[in-house]
Amino acid sequence: MSGELSGRHRDFNDGAGVNAVELELMHSPVPAEQVRDGAPTASAATLGEYSGLEVGVWELTPGTVTDVEADELFIVLSGAATVSFVDEDRVEHLSPGSVLRLMAGQRTVWTVTETIRKVYVS
After folding, report:
1. What is the value of pTM for the model shown?
2. pLDDT single digits (tens) 21-40
3. Is 7 inside a domain boundary?
């Protein structure tokens, strides 16, 4: 691919690309029952499918939220956060370049200190 797409979304499924760092996302408040601290907002944009898996960009603003995960692999593009696994004695520290695998049903607590953006495959 030559050149950047400056955040414009083109048809990913037709072999086009997208600049996942500059992609404009529309945020919504995280549901109140998931919020432990702050007033975080979240957004996601599905880019398409690859071998039957969804590929997209997800972002979460500062705050602390709970989640029940789906099967997913992601790469952090920007931001800082920790992910605590409720049923395990484990905390992952996320920063640009972090790669993490989540498994369906894992209960997590995300503490975001700097808006985090990731590319995911699920």
Report:
1. 0.86
2. 999 999 999 999 999 999 99
3. no
